[in-house]
Description:
Blueprint: E1 2-3, H1 7-17, E2 28-29, H2 32-41, E3 46-50, H3 58-68, E4 73-78, H4 83-91, E5 96-99, H5 104-115, E6 120-121, H6 123-131, H7 147-157, H8 162-169, H9 173-187, H10 192-201
Parallel strand pairs: 1-2, 1-3, 3-4, 4-5, 5-6
Helix pairs in contact: 2-3, 7-9, 7-10, 8-9
Amino acid sequence: MIVDDHQMFLDGLKSILEREDDIEIVAEALNGEEAIKVADRMTLDIILMDVTMPRLNGFTTTAKIKEKYPNIKVLLLTMHGSRDFIEQALEIEADGYVLKNTGKDELTHAIFSLGNGEKYYSEEVKRSFMDSFGKKSAPQAAINLSKREIEVLRLVVQELSTTQIADKLFISHHTVDTHRKNLLSKLGVKNTAGLVKYAMQNGLS
């Protein structure tokens, strides 16, 4: 589904994506309220979500949909690449974030990435986010993390499950959970969004 309050942009995006053999546009909505109603009655894999919309903005709409239907992937599409916007996207655990000035190739790559269970934050978005903190010579906070903790953090950011991380690093589920708890404690964050934010800030994503 495509959600955007500008009909011309919505129509243009639909026209572009309908040319892709493996992408099917099954619904569209002009605001967040409509999007939630569609999600309630249809089976959706991915939603392309505008951020700035009347009634319900993209962040609120995404949070509501993800709460009810966690398997639906949401790719935020916006003109805003500021730190505040990206932080909000991380807080609601949006699956992707791409600027509207991106090209067709990157957009389709983002869509297929989400379809494969990965997250996708464009390089331009990551660069904008990190630049907002000023240039850093080295990620000082990372010094307090062990090599294994950094490995686990990078895999968590890639949205691998505990089982997948355990298999990839040849360690037990319990050990993965312990590393995850230690990361949350050491970095002073509450959830995966906080870990992602830290990793982006320190060049570990």
